[in-house]
C-alpha cells in the first residue's frame, strides 16, 4: 500500500505543478485574442494564425488544466443533490462520474487528437 500511496502522491504533485504552469497559458492566449480583435476591427486586417494559436492554446489549457482541477476538487457538481449523500455516497458518485463520463470523454479526445495529428501535413 505504501508504494501505491507514494505513486499517487507523485501523480498529485505532477498534476499540481503542471496545473500551475498551464495556468500561465492564459496570458499568450489573451494576447493573441487582443491582437486578432485589434487587427480585425481597428486595422481591418484580420489574421489567420491568431485563431489557430488561440484554439490550440485553449485546448492545451483545458486538457492539462483538467487534472489540476480534478486534484483541487474544482469540477462543478449539483450541490443540491450531492450534499445530501454521505461521504461514501459522494465517493461512489465521483467514481461513477469519472469512470463513465470523464475518462471516456478524455480518451475520445486523446484518440481523436492522435488521429488528427497523424493526418496533419507539415
Amino acid at each position: 500500500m505504501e508504494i501505491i500511496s507514494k505513486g499517487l502522491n507523485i501523480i498529485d504533485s505532477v498534476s499540481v505543478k503542471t496545473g500551475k504552469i498551464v495556468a500561465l497559458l492564459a496570458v499568450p492566449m489573451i494576447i493573441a485574442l487582443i491582437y486578432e480583435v485589434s487587427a480585425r476591427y481597428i486595422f481591418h486586417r484580420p489574421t489567420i494564425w491568431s485563431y489557430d494559436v488561440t484554439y490550440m492554446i485553449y485546448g492545451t489549457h483545458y486538457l492539462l488544466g483538467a487534472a489540476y482541477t480534478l486534484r483541487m476538487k474544482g469540477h462543478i457538481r449539483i450541490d443540491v443533490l450531492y450534499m445530501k449523500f454521505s461521504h461514501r455516497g459522494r465517493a461512489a458518485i465521483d467514481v461513477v462520474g469519472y469512470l463513465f463520463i470523464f475518462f471516456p470523454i478524455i480518451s475520445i479526445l486523446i484518440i481523436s487528437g492522435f488521429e488528427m495529428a497523424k493526418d496533419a501535413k507539415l
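The CA atoms of residues 6 and 81 lie 34 Å apart. The mean pLDDT is 88.
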